[in-house]
Specification:
The chain is of the alpha/beta class. It is built from twelve helices and nine strands. The chain has a six-stranded mixed sheet with strand order 5-6-7-3-8-9, sandwiched between helices. A three-stranded antiparallel sheet has the order 2-1-4. Strand 6, helix 6 and strand 7 form a beta-alpha-beta unit. Helix 5 packs parallel to helix 6. The longest helix has 16 residues.
Amino acid sequence: MSTPALELHDLTVAYEHRPVLWDVDLALPSGELIAIVGPNGAGKSTLIKAALGLVKTLSGDAKFFGQSLRQARHRIGYVPQRESVDWDFPVSARDVVLMGRYGRLNWLQRPRAADHAAADEALQSVGMTDLASRQISQLSGGQQQRVFLARALAQQADLYFMDEPFAGVDASTERAIVNVLRELRERGRTVIAVHHDLQTVAEYFDRVVLLNTRLIAAGPVAEVFTPANLHRTYAGRLTPLDAAGEAMRQAVTPSGAPNAASGPAAKVSILGAIDRGTS
């Protein structure tokens, strides 16, 4: 078995002494499109941020292709939630995409011809070449999401984390994103994305991680994305459950840095709260 693209061990996170993730152990293979699914507040975005060192953890560690974050950082791309970005910053779409190349430059080194070429290729991949010189504040929500996706592509990473890449985008942008993800998979890249639309999980992704503070299940969609696991994941909060369950059954039928508590004592103190179901 090849080295996992992402491996988490005993990952635990709490905000304001409230558990968000608890003892998550997970190994995800390379070369696949992987969805992280669960209800609001389940810790999906936190899992990505904790793995990338963007939020403080109570315990646990992350490995990327068997390496630490520091060793593998140049192999990782990240597309945050669009709402977390200051889109009023006075830069063009092309400037934003070119920022994806800065990790490959030495201190004070200016972007080279190869960096500009990579940025242009990324813009073309997401259909934004004609709007490359437009200020990002003048772009629609879907266009902004394409720009941030292009920024990640310009990094030419091996592993991409995407936090709700389809949220609030139009149908055309969603199709463009799906095409880019599939192209990345064809190149042997790995994509791990927070995803909310249960009806498209089987269509868009190879593997799914079901999360609700604790890891519920993880594996190939056809094996893991079951009614029983969805009930366990959403704990009665899946609405409408019957419709979603039917969509899922059809899908698996063969058819072609906030404040955080810290330290092991804090981790122990919230164990009872989790087991009482307050997560």
